[in-house]
Amino acid sequence: MEEQLRKIYYAINIGWSDRDQAYLANVPELPGCHTHGDTYEEALKNALEVIELWLETATDLGWPIPQPQSIAV
Predict the structure, then answer these.
(1) Spatial separation of the C-alpha atoms in residues 14 and 12, rounded to whole Å
(2) Dist CA 21 CA 7 (whole Å)
(3) Span 3-29, pLDDT tens digits
(4) Residues 6 or more apart from 59 whose CB is under 8 A from it?
(5) Could you report the per-residue pLDDT of 44-69, keeping only the tens digit for each?
(6) Within the chain, how many helices (H) and strands (E) appear?
(7) Chain mean pLDDT for the chain
(8) Is residue 70 very low, low, confident or very high in pLDDT (cuts 50, 70, 90)?
(9) I need a labelling partner for 36 at 20 to 30 A (CA). Which of 22, 29, 52, 72 fits?
């Protein structure tokens, strides 16, 4: 699947949660796409993995893949 994925960039929001004592990451353009990590770097790594899983699942189920609304700089 990795070879089939286009280079698409989605915004990832990462912030510290005192309640969860973890960095929370979400991808607002992909419904339900969120994760966490003990460090900022771990949350980012996990977010990149969950984006790939989200896209694979959407493709397998025939869901439309949203185009990113963010602008990469």
Answers:
(1) 6
(2) 32
(3) 454 567 899 999 999 999 999 999 999
(4) 1, 65
(5) 999 999 999 999 999 999 999 998 88
(6) 1, 3
(7) 89
(8) low
(9) 72
What DSSP character marks residue 25?
E
The residues facing 22 across adjacent strands are: 17
Strand partners for 4: none
Residue pointed to by tokens 């990113």 = 68
Name the pairing type of β-strands 34-37 and 22-26.
antiparallel
Instruction: Report residue 46: phi and psi, to 5°.
Output: -65, -40
Nearest Cα to 13, choosing from 1, 2, 23, 3? 23
